[in-house]
Amino acid sequence: MELKELTSRICDLFGCVSVDTLPDKIMFALFSQNSTLYFEKYKELCPDLTVDWLQRVYQFYHADRKEKKQDYTPVSLAKLVSFLSYMPSEKLVYDCCCGSGALTIQKWCTNPDLKFVCEELDERVIPILLFNLCIRNIEATVINKDILSGNIIHSYNTIKGTVYASVQRPMFPETELMKADVGVSNPPFNLRVSVSETILKDLPQNYTCNFAFVAHCLQRSDRCALILPRGVLTSEEEKECRKFLIEKGWLQAAISLPEKMFESTSVATCILVLDKREKSKDVMLINAEEMKSVEVREQRGEGDASHYNRIYKKEFNTFSDEQIAAICELTIKEQDSFSKRISQEELEQHGYNLIIGPYLPIEFEGTVHRDFNAIISDINRIIRERNVIKVTVNKVWAEKLGLTEVIRDCEASNEIVKAMNESLASFKNYEVKEKIIENKYIQSSNSKVFVIENTDKEILSSIMPFFMNMYKQHLYYLNNEENRLLAELRDSMLPLLMNEDLMLKDSDE
């Protein structure tokens, strides 16, 4: 269903005059005596409860990307996190920065008997979250909380019923940090805020808020999977955090994801899979950047009729169920260039970089180059041809003629030639007989000299015929000028000689 139509019908269901009041109307419905009626009507409108339809509406109209960095989790990523975080004995799941409950819904899809602890800062999205839990009959503790500071605002409980859950609000907010089996999270990216001392004790000194969420999830669960910006895999700022987790043996896998998986941002992301029960310091690096499908979603324009009647199509990347299964398999099995298990020693050598590329061998197909000696022979042929004509020029004249830069280039080329010859001579497993010769085609002099010479007795430079033609043309021009001036001199002298105004000297004098 197109977003504009979905929004309109949901607003009608809850009696909203404006979408701005939707969260308040949903909260009213949850505590009304007719809550079951709202659930039934919603299921008629959106029967597929594996999808968070309310998230699409809230994200478009209410999400705060600027201050709270809210990018709600797409279904395919939520599914992937659900499978990656799986534990056979899991009973209680902790959803950190849960938003409207996308990750919780996908964990519930795998096991409807799971219980949840959901924590979220944004008070406006809490009604959407509670409705999503109740209509799916999910038992959960919901805490409206600033996770990084530890400040608790409100808490709620959803009590499982026969078909739908009901909401209770305790007199006092839930303050106990309940320990879960599994943690899942899509926290806001790259925040710059203060972090509570409780979280800081499990972080290196140079922590970032991205890894503060990782530390918090590890405090609350034995195993967790978090969606984070892909930059955390390589940034120098977060190197110590990666090192800390690797040395602890907690980081199990790092998965690079495609760009444009979120509807509201094209930022590239990754998933970190961590497990405190595992003590292996090896990390499986996975490249899932090309394992993607493209989804096209239609959206009606906002504003007046001319915009409203226009349908915009937006493309973004997603994962099919088969691709999700393939990525999960890569976490336990090395496969070509898609996944590789890297030891702590290798990770340390590469600055704890968690992108797979630097750890893969460079492979070439077929013959990459000719024999080095043959290549050098061809290089020397070009240098000899250039050296056939040698110019020696005074430094002042060189500057006037624009040759100073040419002289510098010649000198710089010889420095490169020297370095190349040293490198070629140092090869142990490949004999290079040839050496690259020196460039001698131009040099400056302090003397008042300008010499152009053909230096090779056997080779005539290929420029010489052009040069000689130009030289002959120049001589032809000078000869003509000379003849013209001689004629002018003759014609000037003749009248004076005729009038004896110009006397010739006697031969005896």
Question: Would you kindly provide a brief summary of this structure?
Answer:
The protein has 509 residues and is of the alpha/beta class.
Low-confidence stretches: 64-70, 303-308
CATH T-level fold name of the largest domain: Rossmann fold
Strand order within the widest sheet? Answer: 5-4-3-2-1-6-7-9-8-10-13
Mean model confidence by pLDDT:
84
Q: How would you characterize the overall build of this protein?
A:
This protein has helices at about 5-15, 20-30, 35-45, 55-60, 75-85, 100-110, 125-135, 195-200, 210-220, 240-250, 305-310, 320-330, 345-350, 370-385, 395-400, 405-425, 465-500, and strands at about 90-95, 115-120, 140-145, 150-160, 165-170, 180-185, 220-230, 250-255, 270-275, 285, 295-300, 310-320, 340, 390-395, 440-445, 450-455. A hairpin with a 4-residue loop joins β3 (about 140-145) and β4 (about 150-160). The chain folds into two domains: about 70-360, 3-Layer(aba) Sandwich (Rossmann fold); about 370-465, no CATH class. The strands form three sheets. The protein has an eleven-stranded mixed beta sheet with strand order 5-4-3-2-1-6-7-9-8-10-13, sandwiched between helices. Strands 15-14-16 form a three-stranded mixed beta sheet. Strands 11-12 form a two-stranded antiparallel ribbon. By secondary structure, the chain is of the alpha/beta class. About 30% of the residues are buried. Mean pLDDT is about 85; it is low at about 65-70 and about 305-310. Helix content is about 40%, strand content about 20%. It is built from 17 helices and 16 strands.
